[in-house]
Structure prediction request, 691 residues.
Amino acid sequence: MQELSRVDDIIQSYSEVKTPLIYILKDVQKEYGYLSDVVLTHVAKKVNIPLSEIYGVATFYSLFTTKPKGKYIVRCCNNAPCHVKGSKEVLEAIKKYLGLEMTETTACGTFTLEFTSCLGLCAVAPVMMINDDVYGNLTPEKAVAILKDYKMKGLSNA
Amino acid sequence: MHRNHVLIAMDAHTIAQGARSVRDALKRELEMASLSNEVKVVETGSLGIYNKGVVLVVFPDDVYYAGVKIEDVSEIIAEHFIKGRVVERLRYTDIPEAEEVKEVGAAPRFGKQVRVVLKNAGVIDPESIDEYIAHDGYEALGKALTEMKPDDVIDEVKKSGLQGRGGAFFPTGLKWSFAAAEESDQKYIICNADEGEPGTFKDRLILEGDPHCVIEGMVLAGYAVGATQGYVYIRGEYRMSIDRLNRAIKQARANGLLGENIFDSGFSFDLEVREGAGAYICGEETALIESIEGKRGEPRDKPPFPPSVGLWGKPTIVNNVETLANIPQILLRGSDWYRAMGTEKSPGTKVFTMVGNINNPGLIEVPMGITLREIIYDIGHGIPGGKGFKLAQMGGTTGGILTEEHLDLPMTVESLREIGAGLGSGALLVVDDRQDVVELVENFVEFFDHESCGKCTLCREGNGRLLELLRRINNGKGRLQDLDLMEDLAMTMMKGAFCGLGQAAPIPILGCLKYFRDDFVKKIETAETALAA
Prediction:
């Protein structure tokens, strides 16, 4: 059984905000890593919105996840401006290095690989985002070198 | 007193190239050289130089350094700040301001660029309200609240001919007059900063470079239509824009420029930032409103339009960042001044983002009516690697396809409409002749298939089927009749989809099929021949 009291605190902190559901879900996800059934059921009860509706919101937006993800979420852009600058080759190299297909997570829980929509960094395309940090002007070699750094960091913090 | 100021561009692009660590090294090493009292490091927004690494400008010497790495910092300090010698190997001379022309009362010009919306970007410290105020900031607001009636404000915006810069180019003053005419206890102003159109980053850099001009535009809009509360709906991924905007809102409140009784005029207006959670469709104004209401961002049926029934059922104006950023200048300098730029039917300037296969990518602001050739070859310095021009897509992934024959077409709302395209978000994707058009179209449709919200069948299923057909062609299993099928399906979506996404998605597909049908045919026939052999 997860500790749910933090959910109550988060909901309380938005008592002044009109229709704060998206903010609540964001903070709850930050606290618990993902939006589990248990957590969503609790939120639904507390904010008095049907669980079906909350689940609808949680699965609509790409920044929400109802499944646990890796410590580092690698989000690659594959939109047209990145595409014409070679994002396909970069993505292939990343997939190969991590041994992942899109939306998968490594067995050790270190990396999750996803697509991102355009990050508005197209002057330095192709780009990727790892958690909150962005990296531009990628080549297959450069992308793999960056991931290697994260892998080391992940190991040393483990 | 500091003898030198070092401006360092801190925007999303330079940060992606390591600006933060260079800034830290600069501050640290100036401290170590006991120069921190003489040389001040100032963070600013985009300097208009992109893809050239970390960029610094030293004032008053007016020396630009580009591609600065941490290991270069000690050399710059030792040479430039101690010995007074410019580090030539890092010097950057292709500066957008190179041809600056100063005319009294005119907007600053930088070669072919004219800066209205971007006049402060890269000039002021975006985290300082004092610097904004020193550059005529909040003067328009003072003028409007003390000398103008709300109707006068609307009239001036109407006369300016300003059209919505989110992509639809609806007349802004007219939109405002609809909400102003509504009787309601509460009205809202929403700034649409949910910039998600691939290739577009103008709103991001306006907010990062000059957040106060957007705030000022929103307060003016509120005064004009009688709204007292505003929301900026901004992409959750745009961390830096969110932080700078929040800081700017706090400063504006502390200076009495937001909140109760602004300028003792009796008018009150406040602002709140709302973060998106990742959904392209939320750029559509009714989907955006649903999202602020805490729901799935699915578009609403229209009419009623938001100026009548919007956020929480109240009259609401939704304007794009760039639209709002134009407002203070229009009110301060007048609609005649504004109309002197651009063309009769498309007045003013437009901010474009140049991306793709182009030598000098980035953000520019030019008068409406400039030709595609001028943008790509004069400002953008052409196509890299000696490659030829294949096509350009104007306005993001839903934008129309432009080819060689359109290079001398003036970039205005009316001329693009004539050929079934549009200015859209102002993103200009340049594609060179080594790119595979059929793969590019597959990439477009992958995007639509992913971003379709699923509400209507034509967009949800239509994009899915188009993607299947394109993958089939790219995998060497296409048939010639697939091309007719695609055209037929695209036309149906255009006519029948529920909102702008599904209606616009077919535009680039039909454009590529029209101008590059041979590329599709060749791919299908080559695969057939290979199969037969």
Remarks:
- Residues 98-104 of chain B have pLDDT under 50 and may be disordered.
- Chain B has four domains: 4-94, 117-339, 349-432, 437-532.
